[in-house]
Amino acid sequence: MVRDLDVQQSVLLHSVYIPVEALPGIYEAADIVTYPYREITMSGALMTGIAFGKPIIATSLPAFAEVLDNNTNALLVNFGDVPGLTNALVKLVRDAGERKRMAAAVARLQEVYSWENIAESTEACYASVLSAMV
To answer: What is the full per-residue pLDDT of the chain (134 aa) written as tens digits?
Structure first.
């Protein structure tokens, strides 16, 4: 499909295990991150994509839709919608201005979904549960 769409110069496909220590370099090099999950409750991968300020394409699952806003800071597609995913990828690959606009919108999410804020929210949740037990 990459060849059929003539986007080989923009797509690097890896079908090997990628060790955790290599991920920051891969995220940094990426122009777009995609999360084509069938199901998920929450995603550390998504939070990492947000931390790197990358344009996002994800499936329109509740966990993603809670964080992402379609056509603002992400493109959301239904799981299994291959033409929809393809169109979203082609749109962002071919439109540097749209990637830049979306990356700026993702960067604004960093203020809300930073690892520090997530840790503080988690700590507050545990403290609340513990205080209710006493």
So the answer is: 888 888 788 777 878 888 989 999 999 999 999 999 999 877 688 888 899 999 999 999 999 999 999 999 999 999 999 999 999 999 999 999 999 999 999 999 988 877 788 788 889 999 999 998 87
- Contacts of 73 by beta carbon, 8 Å cutoff, 6+ apart: 56, 102, 105, 106, 108, 109
Distance (Å, whole) CA 20 – CA 22: 5
The first and second tokens of residue 117, run together, are 């804020």
CA 51 to chain centre: 9
Query: Whole-structure pTM over 0.90, yes or no?
Result: no
Task: Give Cα 81 to chain centroid, integer Å.
Answer: 17
- Cβ–Cβ under 8 Å, residues 129 and 63: no
Query: Domain 8-133 maps to which CATH number in 2.40.10.170, 3.40.50.2000, 3.20.20.70, 3.10.20.310?
Result: 3.40.50.2000
Q: Is 43 left (phi over 0), alpha (psi -120 to 50) or beta?
A: beta
